[in-house]
Amino acid sequence: MRSExxxxxxADRQKLAEEWNELYQSMVEVCLAxxxxxxxxxxxxRSKTRNLVELFHKARSLPNQVQRISFAExxxxxxxxxxILEWYxxxxxxxxxxxxxxxxxxxxxxxxxxxLQALEELQQEYLDDIKDEEKYDNWKNQLNSRLEKLAAILHxxxxxxxxxxxxxxxxxxxxxxxxxxxxxxLTSSRQTDxxxxxxCLLELFxxxxxxxxxxxxxxxxxxxxxTVEDSSPSKFFAxxxxxxxxxFTDIEVEAIAKSFNPAEVLSRQNASKTGLQQQIALLxxxxxxxxxxxxxxxxLNPEKSALILAGAKVTPLNxxxxxxxxxxxxxxxxEETEGNxxxxxxxxxxGGVPSENKSYIRSRRGETFDIAECLTLTExxxxxxxxxxLVALSxxxxxxxxxxxxxxxxxxxxxxxxxxGATSVLSxxxxxxxxxxxxxxxxxxxxxxxxxxPAVSVALRESQLWLRDVSVGDLLKWVxxxxxxxSTHKEKIQNRYKRGFKQDYQPYQSPMYWAPFxxxxx
Length: 522
Hints:
By secondary structure, this protein is an alpha/beta fold. It folds into 2 domains: about 15-220, no CATH class; about 235-440, no CATH class. Helices cover about 40% and strands about 15% of the residues. Strand 17, helix 16 (about 415-420) and strand 18 form a beta-alpha-beta unit. The relative contact order is 0.11. Mean pLDDT is about 85; it is low at about 315-345 and about 350-355.
């Protein structure tokens, strides 16, 4: 039926997938009732991200008849000390498929219907609060308790207890709205060598925690026959502070660029749509692409999600253009106050556009942006980034996806960069703080470019845990010793923390700062 859809295109394929999604759920339930967990997992993979998988095949000149991934192929994606946790939600509960390289078949954990009801209620509260300006403070205040509640509902302790002791790495494959949560930040316990270790998943798995939309997409994004150049990326391209209102973004990019040769940076007013188009060859030949700017995810029209470029901001001369808008149209951005300092801007958190005019978006600070001057998801799909090992999205809401899609189609900025050819994407789950993000990103590249060249997920893990635990005193020592920061930049950061803070104070202990960052892909 899908192959016969020609005129309707992707929209009709999506509608068909939604109509037949219940059939896949029933097939999975039947397979599990017949104790055939291998077939159940293969049906799950057939039902997930179908449009994106087909687009991957078309773009890479693969066979038109998409070959669905087998359980043996899923296992082959894993290292010896690695495991996959893949979630799936049906009408009577959710399941977790646990796969290791030596698994004869998936180990399946199944929830109760009460667990599913509790999960549905929690995700609705979470989404309502994060999308609504008047509820955003409640979302922020409830983040810790909700993550604790989520860990209990998902029975994360039971799932982790089923993993072999030698497991050091995790690949998480969420489902639908579970993509919106920082599962790597959930607390669990693990028994190894007769000792019990308690901590978040990042702490329990030193080999890193990474995400993928589906095992098949992970397989399709694998880069084979890596050259020496691939394993030692040196060509760097960055978009730096296009809107000129993120001071620490300038520090971030200028510091990171020092560790690359060549490093091409489009800064401030040069980082416009026209500027990017003129330098598109530099982006498409880069090993690392770094976007340090404002970003937004449009919950109503995910394909209109975008990264904000220079020249996008407009001053409405005609007031009626913005009439009819309500506060509900524009949720509040996270602007964290550190100590007694002036609240810094966050790197995005832009609200959806009014339904009557899809050409503009509004920020939560009341600014208006012309979407034609932004880099939208639709345009990201048209990029050619097959040489790109990593796309780092140092912006807000870049890991968010369409949670209303019943087929788990994974529509968001991250999927666009995967389709364009990137093998790894570093992205964010909510509006992130300008200052802490700059510090984390500089630390990430410091680790990523170190002599032992860790994987993206490992470098991100270490930088996140470092940011969470670092004290003001240790942060100042790190700044003073940094070879990437200029003396001017060192002074600016030091001045922020020298007054009003105790040396042992940990300013970024809250998951608000370190948990939104996700390593997706390789």
